[in-house]
Specification:
The chain is an all-beta fold. It has strands at 23-27, 35-40, 52-55. It has a three-stranded antiparallel sheet, with no helix packed on it.
């Protein structure tokens, strides 16, 4: 399936519970960080494809995210 093809969502799929998982993070520099990278804490996931990096000044604590 192409990412640009129209797809009708399967109406029979309902999520009763949202997925949850623990996250870890690293800064590019401990003294003066410019970037933070967030990734799953578990090694159940492939770290080479399951991460996101953001500018440190744009990052907010996860407990403040709604």
């Amino acid at each position: 399936m192409s990412a640009v093809e129209d797809a009708t969502p399967d109406q029979s799929v309902e999520l009763e519970h949202l997925p949850s998982f623990e996250l870890s993070y690293l800064f590019d520099d401990d003294d003066e960080p410019t970037e933070v990278t967030v990734f799953p804490a578990s090694d159940e996931f492939d770290i080479s494809t399951n991460w996101i990096t953001a500018a440190a000044e744009s990052a907010i604590p996860l407990d403040r995210v709604r």
